[in-house]
Amino acid sequence: MVTPSNRDFLFLQLRELPYFRALLRAVEATFYQGLDLPAPTLDLGCGDGHFAARTFDRPLEVGLDPWWAPLQEARRRYGEAYRLLVQADGAAMPFPEGAFASAVSNSVLEHIPHLDAVLRDLARVLRPGAPFVFSVPNHNFLPNLSVGRALDRLGLRPLGDAYRAFFNRISRHHHCDPPEVWRQRLARAGFEVVDWWHYFSPAALRALEWGHYFGLPGLVVKKLTGRWILAPTHRNLAWLARRLRPLYENPRHPQGAYTFYIARRWG
Fold first, then answer.
1. In the CATH scheme, what is the homologous superfamily, with its name and number, of domain 24-139+176-201+248-265?
2. What are phi and psi of 218, to 5 degrees?
3. pTM exceeding the 0.90 threshold for the entire prediction
4. Residue 84's CB: how many other CB atoms inside 10 A?
């Protein structure tokens, strides 16, 4: 069970992540508060474990990811986030049918080419009626990229399309779909959508888009030190938190570039 929290997820994330990623993850963390996630819970695509460590009030039972390096970082830096870490492909998970009572997958499914196979195997390892909560970019993501829109306004639509394709590629997106596509995709795998909402306004998306470029020096720092933020003090981060807080506190938006889904395993 995830209980309501008074934690300032924005500041928690800004202390450890580049500002554009911190804003997105902070918003998503607030959505999980108060949701019923009965144990045992599977985190599908857990990565380095940072999100789970800063979001949930209890260790999740299993974090699963196909890549060894982020799992090693999860074990080293965020060992409290999971009771067990497993390296496996999401389409062939080493668990029996009905092993889990709930599952989460935060900003992961958009990166998976063989998504239908992964969703089918997720349905297999979930118990009937189990909630599956996840977030993904949607059909508003590419059209609302500011550089692409500027090129379109200048009558340079082919360049705008090229920019959108470039940004989608560096974001490693295979799926940026509207709710109806997700509803059909989930139904094929054995899920029903219980609720969903768009979040991350065009203004928030601009912060994320430009953060990819302004954040390049931070990538060098991460490579050299293993940390994104060298001096994560309140004094250093307070001005940035003030600028981002309106986007953090009012995240839902009809033209939001991401969608948060609450689905349920049939049965």
1. Vaccinia Virus protein VP39 (3.40.50.150)
2. -65, -30
3. yes
4. 11
